[in-house]
Amino acid sequence: MPSFVIRSLQVNETPLLRDFLYEAIYVPEGVVPPPRSVVDLPELQVYIKDFGDRKDDLCFVAEQDNQIIGAVWTRIMNDYGHIDNHTPSLAISLYEPYRGKGIGTLLMKTMLTALEGKGYPKVSLSVQKENYAVTWYRKLGFDVVRETTEEYIMVKEF
């Protein structure tokens, strides 16, 4: 596998978060993916609108051959994984060809280290129960703190 680097998202790259937000949407096998415009819904725009303008916005990207192939980002927002107004919510995704190669794990560990270093006591996320990533999040130290019919709200404490 060609090498890649993990680095901070640059201001001029924030429009890419729209693509990565779409990539983060879990689509069960056999289900037709939603149109890309789904990320324009208000409940999804909270993840990316004006990203970088809030003091708690933080994003790392994976870059390979001068192309960004994945992103992990957090912000304090009232999203699906919202715990409280002091806990960042996390989103992560990679373009499909780069999944399952350890890149996401390195992205996530970089983010978790950064959040802990900034003094956050925990980070939260939401994930659909049938998403294979649930097991991965557990391996990274996330625990289910709440659940709905379709998803888990998970938290990692530092």
TrEMBL record:
What species was this sequence derived from?
Parabacteroides absconsus
InterPro entries membership:
Acyl_CoA_acyltransferase, GNAT_dom, MshD_Acetyltransferase
* The name this protein goes by in its record: GNAT family N-acetyltransferase
Matching entries from PROSITE patterns are given as: GNAT
- Spell out the CDD domains in the cross-references: NAT_SF
Q: Where is the signal peptide?
A: none
N-acetyltransferase domain span = 4-158
Write out the transmembrane intervals.
none
Domain of life from the UniProt record: Bacteria
A Pfam family recorded for this sequence: Acetyltransf_1
